[in-house]
Amino acid sequence: MFHFAEDEIGNGLRTFPVDESTEETFVMGRGVKDQYYLLADVLAVGTWLGIPLSHSELGPRLRALMVKTSTIAAAFLEAGESLVLSALGRLGFVRRGG
After folding, report:
1. So where are the chain's domains?
2. Contact, 49 vs 65, CB < 8 A?
């Protein structure tokens, strides 16, 4: 969970594109424990990218950031698995099956 300073949230909300036809979901979910705060995530994205939510480059920059993040996460997982397998092998564990 991320918490941003009130001024950052205020800046994000001030630049949020709103007109008469705007509908934005603040929170959705079922019950008390299964909730997703969509507006908070949208504001966080604007803060991370450092651009107003109404900026025309928001979509392309967000997609590029998501691709980079996915690539880094996949590489991290692969490297972590290799590290664990190597360490277990040095400790004498033998891989069996699949």
Report:
1. 1-55, 56-98
2. yes
77: which 2 tokens?
């997982």
**pTM (2 d.p.):** 0.52
Residue 23, number of CB atoms within 10 A of its CB? 5
For residue range 64-94, list pLDDT tens digits in order. Answer: 888 999 999 999 999 999 999 999 999 999 8
Tokens of 83: 């590290």
* DSSP code per residue over 23-90: -----EEETTTEEE-HHHHHHHHHHHHTS-TT-TTHHHHHHHHHHHHHHHHHHHHHHHHHHHHHHHHH
